[in-house]
Each structure stands twice: as C-alpha cells, then as structure tokens.
Amino acid sequence: xxxxxxxxxxxxxxxxxxxxxxxxxxxxxxxxxxxxxxxxxxxxxxxxxxxxxxxxxxxxxxxxxxxxxxxxxxxxxxxxxxxxxxxxxxxxxxxxxxxxxxxxxxxxxxxxxxxxxxxxxxxxxxxxxxxxxxxxxxxxxxxxxxxxxxxxxxxxxxxxxxxxxxxxxxxxxxxxxxxxxxxxxxxxxxxxxxxxxxxxxxxxxxxxxxxxxxxxxxxxxxxxxxxxxxxxxxxxxxxxxxxxxxxxxxxxxxxxxxxxxxxxxxxxxxxxxxxxxxxxxxxxxxxxxxxxxxxxxxxxxxxxxxxxxxxxxxxxxxxxxxxxxxxxxxxxxxxxxxxxxxxxxxxxxxxxxxxxxxxxxxxxxxxxxxxxxxxxxxxxxxxxxxxxxxxxxxxxxxxxxxxxxxxxxxxxxxxxxxxxxxxxxxxxxxxxxxxxxxxxxx
Length: 442
What we know:
This protein is an all-alpha fold. The chain has helices at residues 7-18, 21-33, 37-65, 69-77, 83-115, 124-135, 138-156, 164-187, 192-200, 209-222, 229-235, 243-271, 281-291, 297-331, 340-362, 376-403, 413-438.
C-alpha cells in the first residue's frame, strides 16, 4: 500500500479533507444563523472534546491496520463481524460525492462567470433569478459536475505521494494565503468591524440546547468524520508519525480556516447591510451582491469563488480516494484485481451516473427520482449528514473503545483513560443526541 512521504504531507492532506465547503460555505452561514461569537466558542469546545478523540480514532484505525476502510476493521478485529462498517464508510463517501460534485460544479461555474464579469450589473433579486435559472439548467449543471469529477480523478490517477500529497502541499498553502488576503481586505471595509464584533463577541443569551447541538453537528461535519477519509489517510501515514499530535494540528488548522472564512464573509455582509442569516444562499446570492459594491468587484468575486473551488477540491480528493482505495483492496482478493488506474476509472464512472441523477432530480427533469416528496440531491444530503456520518462515527467509537482499546494509543495512563471513556460512553451518547436532533425528535 502506498504511503505519504512526509508528516507535513499527511497533515495538509487530512486538513484539506476537512477544510472543504463545510468550513468555507457552511460555517459562516451557520454562525450567522446561531448568534455569532457564542456559537463559535461552542463549536471550538465541541471540536476539542468530541472531534479530537474521533479524529484520533479514525487515524489510529487506519494506521494500526495499514489498510483502507475495506480491510481495516477485519484486520483489527480478526473477523468479518465488522465488515458491514467498511461498506457503510464506502457508501457514505459515494452518496456524499454524488451531491458534493454537483455543489463543486456550482463553485466552478460561478468562478467562470465571475471572471467573465457576468455579475457586474446584477442586484440581489437578479442574482436570485440567475441562481434559480442555473439550478434548473440540467445540461450545464451536469457538465460542471462532471468537470469536478474529472479534475479530482486526474489527481488520484497518480500514486498517493505524487498525486494527493503533492497537490495538498500546493493547494493548502494557496488556500491560507487567499483567505488571509481576502480577510484583511474585508475587515478594512467601512462597517466591516460590525461583522468582526458579530463573529467574535459572544452573546451567551443566544445559547439554547438546539444551538449546542448545532455546534456539535457542525464540528462533526467540518472535521470530515464518519466517512472513512481519515481512516484511509491513516493507512498512508509514515510509521513514525504521532497520531495525537497530527490530530491536534489538523483540528487547529480547520478551526483557523473556518474563522478566516467567517472573517471573509461576515464583515462584507455587515458592511453593506445584508443579513448574516441568509442560509446557503449567502454564498451564491448574497455575497455576489455584496462584491458588486466593492472596489474591483470582478477581481474580488473571482478570487472568492476560486477560493471555494480550491476548498471543494481538497475535500473531493479525499472522499473519492476512499472509494478508489476500497475497490483496489476489495478486488485484490479476486481473480481480476483492479490496479489504481482501473479503480479510479470505475469510481469516476459510478459517480458520473450518480451526479447526473442528482442533477436531473434537482432540476425537475426526473420526477421518478423524487422520494417522499424530496429530490435525490436532498435525500442524499440528508442521508449522509443526518444518518451515515453519525452512524459511522458512533460505530467506530464503539469499535475502538470496546474491541481494540489496548495498545492503540501510546500516551500517559491518564490521557489513555480519558480517551477510552470518551470513546466508550461520552461520544456515543453525544452522537445519539445529535442524531435525534437532526431528525427533529428533540
């Protein structure tokens, strides 16, 4: 099994997996919907208490076994009893990529349109109309979703250290530089400090049980948990890499990027008297309208959507790698094993089909794909976010906590004890509560 050639390569690739549209797209509007600074404190606390043990856990499963999600659970348990969890991880990545490539296609499309100066004369209502028309344009959406698929497959075509690691060392520093430059620009806008106050001044009166659960759910989402990406990357870790240190560094990077993304988005929104509670439309409707009020709007909007594309691709690479590694390892036991190139092609073709089905359902061109009154795009989103990610994180915590706890974490006895108590009891209970909240049962 190929591996990363350096510790920094693992860190940047893993951070890139987590730093996707969750940090750049979902984090700012979720903060806006839940009251700002107090929510951020909750998010950071949840990322440390719940996220850190889960990140360590997935890395340890991969590193200890030296396998992808297909073989990791069997190698550590010594039986096929947990093999269902391997398939759950692979299917989670497949369903996630089915709609994630569509959203990545939106980012690429908006980057191209911004560079073409399409938004220069549009106000917010016109941008809403533009986005609605784009959402109904099945051919264009399909082309851009396939483009996102092809770009990701092109990276995975190469070995791990020549493809994923090499590009991560380019994209992640580029992402940080772009975020810092844009954040400085937004903060210096007249009225931008109001966005900073909203972002960093905590108002604890905003904290409710639902807000706490939202913070827990967002920490799971932004850390790329429960879908096998960190297990896969853990399997590529150099033997001398310290899992605990890498996990802490990864979470710190994800938090920093999320805060920088909030610093890019919210000061601009406040500077031009837009609402920070616009939800997902904040990215594709509100922000383009905000950019049109700025100096050099074409440059600013193009830079922002380029930033979105970079963030999206760092995540699609890790998610698709889960499937590629799975097929390579699963077929190795058959008479016709797939090499890496063949596995990339098979994975890409599967996702072309599911991406196209998501686009057709979203644009209303395939009513037969509507289930319980919801299109396939939304159903895949809900299935992954509300069910498969909590199920994966829950099951892997129990797996390590109860079945392979000893000798897997080389730390002090106190830290090992706290780690196991969290995996065995605290985190599973917390995940169940988040799961019930996502179903509106709580």
